Amino acid sequence: MAEIVTTTTDAPVPLRSLPMKTIKPLLREPRVVIAGGFLLLLLLIAIFAPYIAPKDPLEQDLMLGNMPPATSAGAEPGYYLGTDDLGRDVLSRVLYGSRIALTVAFVAASLSAIIGTLMGLAAGWYGGWADRIISRLVDIWMAFPPVLLSVLLVAVLGSGLHSVIAAIVIIDWTRFCRVVRAETMAQAQLDYVMAAETIGFSRSHILWREILPNVAPVLIALVSLEMGIAVIVEAILSFVGLSLSSDIPTWGGMIAQGRQMIHQGWWVFVFPLIALFATVLAFNQLGNGLRKALDPVMRR
Amino acid sequence: MTQPLVAIEGLSAISTRDGGAPVLRDVSLTLEKGEVRGLVGESGAGKSTIAKALLGILPSTVKVTGGFIRFEGRDLLAMPRRELSDIMGRDITLIPQDPQTALNPARRIEAQLTDGLRLKLGMSKAQAHERALQLLDEVQIRNPERVLNAYPHELSGGMRQRILIASAFALNPKLVVADEPTTALDVTVQKEILRLIRRMQEAHGTAVIFVTHDLGVVAKICDRVTLLYAGKVIEDGATADMLTAPKHIYTSALIAAGPRYDRPNAGLEPVPEAVFRQLRAEIGIAERRV
Question: Across A117-188, where does the E strand assignment appear?
Answer without folding.
Answer: none
